[in-house]
């Protein structure tokens, strides 16, 4: 099953909310969690060594230090964890991760899973967003005014596997689904997730100006990963209307 290697014994978390950021449609989850970790200066809290994850090492510009491709970042003050992934993850690997994480945290805390639903929209328009939940997660959504879906649908890819595990194990989880442009990274959709979804759920305000002001630059920098996600549907977290399967 693998394990999660905690690096910071000086960080104490009682009942944290974990925000998942696996790559998917519009890269909305990855963009949102990367921005969350950087904006709140979250510390590199743990390395994820769960079975099924790609056996690779990653590095960043101007930094010689190698890191694992999937990592947890923590904000003790906000009781917040952010899962950051630098690589596509298959649904079987995500299921292994969910089981690995549940064994580590004992099923406590709320998990927030992020997914884009591929839809074109006019420039300057606000993407639609709605939420789904399990084991009390729906109550959390209602408490902060996040709308229910207007149509039936399903979430596939690794985020779908994580949500499936939450349903099976009756753990408290929330799924936030936002309209995202499928052809390229969508910083505006990620900003909407942060401002209207994640922020209210964790009881904080998330500044998003950097995401929206640097949208063109971010699209260019992340375009290759977005193309990889398009070419490999299995590894791409996405929501789809259920009518497509009927």
UniProtKB/TrEMBL annotation:
Signal peptide: none
Pfam name, any one: PAC2
Matches recorded under InterPro entries: Proteasome_assmbl_chaperone_2 (IPR019151), PSMG2_sf (IPR038389)
GO cellular component: proteasome complex
Keywords on record: Proteasome
Region (Disordered): 226-246
Protein name: Proteasome assembly chaperone family protein
């Amino acid at each position: 099953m693998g394990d999660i290697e905690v690096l910071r014994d000086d960080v104490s978390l009682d009942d944290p909310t974990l925000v998942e950021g696996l790559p998917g449609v519009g890269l909305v989850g990855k963009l949102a969690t990367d921005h969350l970790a950087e904006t709140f200066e979250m510390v590199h809290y743990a390395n994820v060594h769960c079975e099924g994850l790609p056996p690779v090492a990653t590095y960043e510009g101007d930094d010689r230090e190698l890191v694992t491709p999937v990592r947890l970042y923590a904000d003790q003050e906000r009781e917040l964890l952010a899962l950051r992934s630098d690589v596509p993850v298959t649904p079987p690997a995500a299921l292994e991760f969910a089981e690995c994480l549940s064994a580590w945290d004992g099923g406590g805390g709320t998990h927030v899973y992020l997914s884009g639903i591929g839809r074109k929209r006019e420039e300057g328009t606000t993407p639609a967003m709605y939420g789904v939940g399990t084991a009390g997660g729906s109550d959390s959504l209602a408490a902060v005014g996040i709308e229910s879906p207007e149509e039936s649908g399903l979430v596939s890819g690794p985020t779908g596997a994580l949500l499936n595990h939450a349903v099976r194990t009756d753990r408290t989880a929330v799924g936030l689904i936002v309209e995202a442009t499928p052809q390229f990274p969508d910083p505006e959709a990620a900003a909407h997730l942060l401002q209207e979804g994640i922020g209210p759920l964790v009881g904080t305000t998330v500044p998003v100006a950097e995401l929206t002001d640097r949208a063109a630059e971010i699209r260019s920098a992340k375009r290759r990963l977005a193309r990889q996600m398009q070419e490999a549907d299995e590894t791409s977290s996405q929501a789809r209307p259920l009518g497509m399967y009927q």
